[in-house]
Amino acid sequence: MIQSALIxxxxxxxxxxxxxxxxxxxGAPRGSIYHHFPGxxxxxxxxxxxxxxxxxxxxxxxxxxxxxxxxxxxxxxxxFWRTVMYNSDFAAGCPVIxxxxxxxxxxxxxxxxKDVFQRWEELYAEMLQRAGxxxxxxxxxxxxxxxxxxxxxxxxxxxRSNGPLERVADELQRLFHGALEDARTQ
Length: 186
Prior knowledge:
By secondary structure, this protein is mainly alpha-helical. The protein has nine helices and no strands.
């Protein structure tokens, strides 16, 4: 049900995603949604937002472990979104963005989105610091990476093309390479 909620939230937004749609999409029995989410839609949205955050955090962590290269993390996240966009015919968006945008109706979802974005920033900052980039610059680069990729997802949906995502990936790679080179020469 959480995975179905993620997909529907990313495609339609939170307000346009109902329990009925989640049940239909997931194939879960009707009563199970109230059993697993006694806090209602707010609880489902919050848990789905945190689940999305965990999924991307795992991807970032794996990229760092496998390559110990911050640029590889960019490649991993961009490849993830490239696949999501292509497989959904550009209908899918980021459910964390949906939770942020519609947070007035679901403060718990907005709080979860804030936590998710902060966690992603911290992961980028940690990997950049391990590569020798000073803490303040590493945090800034983490914010830029998240902002750029999330923005590219929105633009790619609007254009129905991975073009914005590809351009952002190229620029982030250059930015990270430049920052790593600067750190090596200091």
